[in-house]
Write a structure and sequence with these properties.
The complex is a heterodimer of chains A (243) and B (317). Chain A is of the alpha/beta class. Chain A is 36% helix and 25% strand. A six-stranded mixed beta sheet of chain A has the order 6-7-8-3-9-10, with helices on both faces. A four-stranded antiparallel beta sheet of chain A has the order 2-1-4-5, covered by helices on one side. Chain A is globular. Chain B has helices at residues 5-23, 27-52, 60-77, 82-103, 109-128, 153-177, 179-189, 191-196, 201-220, 223-227, 232-235, 238-251, 257-276, 281-296, 300-316; strands spanning 139-140, 229-230. A two-stranded antiparallel ribbon of chain B has the order 1-2. Chain B is globular, with a radius of gyration of 20 Å. The chains are: A alpha/beta (243), B mainly alpha (317). Chains A and B meet through helix 2 and helix 3 of A and helix 7 and helix 8 of B.
């Protein structure tokens, strides 16, 4: 935690792709155990933002501070070691591995210095039970259905024993009951003390899950507030629906 | 400490080699054995990068030839013992392998494969134009008529190759079964996801390309002494390069014993065909077997057995 008690603090972040400004001077923060939403129309810079937080991209200006430590220039694997974990919009399982082996990769790398090595399999199984995979650990991950892939994606991100989980559109394309299933998992892992940044287009899920929401539009932060405040915000309505 | 079956196997293989050296009179056995073992080391080396890490490359013959020519250059410079030449060739090829590793920062998949092929061609032109090692005319090596402890020079070369290949197999097995093996496999499956799961992808790729380079160099260094005459064409021979890829593909690339099975099988078939039918035909056989496996059993012999075992298990339920 830094002096303000913040878990993650992003200040004045700017990211350009050539001449295109994907994020312009964006600041946001995340408190420990918080459930934070990040929304905005397509192309507004949400995924770029979490790429800069997780280290998949490097920002040109601004700083990213995690638990009081400057991590702006650190490569992604170092950030994973520190406790920032993410899931991908399009699931990226390790296809030649079983579900359990998928879990062991973050255990043996991201969490290697923080978790007793002898307990890896037990911990992996415990997380798998959380997503309902306790009896399917030996199954090959290459043949899973979409909703199962999303669950594996979350379970694997959790296996890194993170303090922050960034969930990038974990529910896109899922049916209503499947959305509830994934939400349930996200609630459960938040109860275990993990702060969550949720990027999502499904407003029902965002409004139900998040305690606080940031809204991005064309690389600018246009609003911040509780779900109620965001729903009543005219700028947000304009960004989504036009004038 | 529990002695595993693997190490017992290694000792048995070594013992078998020495027994063969003591008993057999037919020098061709050692000659053929050397060729098979050379293929085995190259197959294991290729598989560390191409199989475990998923970076398929066509430059393997380049590393092999650089190993061979490092030995030639050092041999011209001062007649150093063969073991010293092998160690230095391993280091040189390891360093070039490390350099290749940095290519993976920008090149993936087919682009990396083509870049390594181009690299091999560049090295071939360099060596063709380097007079010190014989240039395009090639270089001769006079091998000693008598060697201590062994009946003949070729017998010694065979035992040397056996020891080297057992070391390479042990290293490759360690790489695949350790925590590092899972890291390499995660790079093969999805490099971006691996990085985000805490896998230091660049470091592991550099280790992988370096190990590949060292093993290729080690396989190449004794080659000029085995054939006694070497030129760029024979060192950068396409067949040698194709074999290094075909053997792991046929055996199975995901596990350490895949390339071993592939090399022993393909290498032995090639030797038998060379002797009984013709040396040209064995090139055709490599091609045909490779196409058959890629089309029908893309996971190699190991994959075939795994599928068979799974079907039996599921059928038994």
């Amino acid at each position: 935690m830094d002096a303000n008690g913040r878990l993650l603090d992003v200040q004045g972040l700017t990211k350009r792709f050539g001449g295109f400004v994907a994020l312009n001077n964006v600041s946001m923060h995340l408190d420990p155990r918080e459930r934070l939403g990040l929304i905005g129309p397509n192309g507004s810079g949400k995924t770029t933002m979490i790429n800069c937080i997780s280290g998949a991209l490097f920002n040109e200006e601004g700083s990213v501070v995690f638990r009081g430590e400057e991590i702006t220039g650190l490569p992604a694997f170092k950030r994973a070691e520190l406790g920032i974990s993410r899931s991908f919009q399009i699931p990226r399982p390790f296809r030649t591995m079983s579900i359990l082996e998928n879990m062991l990769v973050p255990m043996e790398y991201a969490a290697w210095g923080r978790v007793d090595h002898a307990t890896h399999e037990d911990r992996a199984m415990e997380i798998l039970a959380l997503v309902g995979f306790q009896d399917r650990a030996r199954e090959n991950s290459g043949n899973l259905t979409q909703v199962d892939l999303r669950k594996l994606e979350l379970a694997r991100a959790l296996a890194a024993q993170p303090d922050v989980l960034v969930s990038d559109e974990s529910m896109a394309g899922l049916s209503s009951s499947e959305v509830d299933e994934v939400l349930e998992i996200l609630f459960k892992l938040n109860e275990r003390g993990v702060a969550v940044i949720m990027i999502e287009h499904i407003m029902r899920a965002v409004m139900r899950y998040c305690e606080r929401i940031y809204v991005l539009d064309a690389g600018q932060l246009i609003a911040e507030g509780t779900p109620e405040e965001i729903q009543g915000n005219p700028d947000v309505e304009r960004a989504y629906l036009g004038e | 400490m529990k002695v595993s079956g693997f190490w017992i196997g290694i000792v048995l293989m070594l013992a078998a080699g020495f027994v063969l050296a003591g008993v057999a009179d037919n020098q061709f056995l050692f000659f053929a054995g050397y060729v098979i073992l050379q293929g085995l080391i190259m197959a294991v080396a290729w598989n560390v990068l191409g199989g475990f890490t998923g970076y398929v490359n066509f430059g393997s013959a380049g590393f092999f030839a650089i190993g061979a020519y490092t030995a030639i250059a050092l041999h011209q410079f001062a007649e150093l013992p063969l073991l010293v030449l092998i160690v230095i060739a391993g280091i040189v090829c390891g360093l070039i392998g490390l350099g290749t590793g940095y290519l993976t920062l920008r090149l993936r998949g087919v682009y990396f494969a083509i870049a390594t092929l181009a690299m091999a061609i560049v090295f071939e032109s360099l060596i063709t134009n380097w007079d010190y090692v014989g240039g395009s005319a090639g270089a001769y090596v006079i091998t000693p008529a008598e060697v201590p402890f062994f009946d003949s020079f070729i017998e010694m070369m065979f035992i040397l190759m056996l020891v080297l290949s057992l070391i390479c197999v042990a290293v490759s097995r360690y790489l695949s079964m350790s925590r590092m093996g899972r890291g390499l496999a995660s790079i093969r499956d999805d490099e971006t996801a691996a990085e985000c799961m805490g896998v230091p992808t660049l470091r592991l790729k550099l280790i992988s390309t370096t190990v590949m380079g060292v093993m290729m160099g080690v396989a190449g260094a004794p080659f000029p002494f085995f054939v006694t005459y070497i030129n760029p064409l024979s060192a950068f021979d396409l067949l040698i390069a194709v074999n290094a890829i075909a053997m792991p593909m046929i055996g199975g690339t995901a596990v350490w014993f895949g390339p071993v099975i592939g090399a022993l099988l393909l290498g032995t078939i090639q030797q038998i065909v060379t002797v009984t039918i013709s040396s040209e035909l064995n090139i055709l056989i490599v091609g045909a077997v490779l196409i058959a496996f890629v089309a029908l059993a893309p996971r190699g012999i190991v994959g075939l057995f795994q599928d068979f075992a799974r079907k039996r298990r599921e059928g038994g339920k």
